[in-house]
Amino acid sequence: MHIWVDADACPKPVKEILFRAAVRAQVPVILVANQYLSVPPSPLIRAVQVSSGFDVADNHIVQSAQVGDLVITADIPLAAEAVAKGVAVINPRGERYTLDNVRQRLNMRDFMETLRSSGIQSGGPAPYSQQDKQAFANALDRFLAAAR
Length: 148
Hints:
- The protein is an alpha/beta fold.
- Helix content is 47%, strand content 15%.
- It is built from five helices and six strands.
- It has helices at residues 12-25, 56-64, 76-84, 99-117, 130-147; strands at 3-6, 29-33, 45-49, 70-72, 88-90, 96-97.
- A six-stranded mixed β-sheet has the order 3-2-1-4-5-6, sandwiched between helices.
- Helix 1 (12-25) packs parallel to helix 5 and helix 3 (76-84) runs antiparallel to helix 4 (99-117).
- The protein is globular.
- The mean pLDDT is 91.
């Protein structure tokens, strides 16, 4: 099992939780981004820098992740591709994406994108909170416990 992280927009608290979990659970964590990332020295934690471009990091994650792995992302299209491949996905706020809910989220994302492109301002996501951090840590712990 590996944990793949869509690291370009991943909140720092999530990365810190993942670094601790990698050591505790002895699970490799791979952060994928189109920029240089500094990671703690550990044989279990590595960063992969991909070339810049639309969805290059997402494509790398989808091609690399296997059934039994976990993907961490807030990117709904990436989550949908990973879930369709049979890979578990959790977003940084602790929500687990499934075949049942990811299509709904993708439809909502597309609807909101249509509104934004027509000039309607919908605001962005709420700031990352302590409750989000705790929800993510709990979801990660549940996944790791079930994977053992």
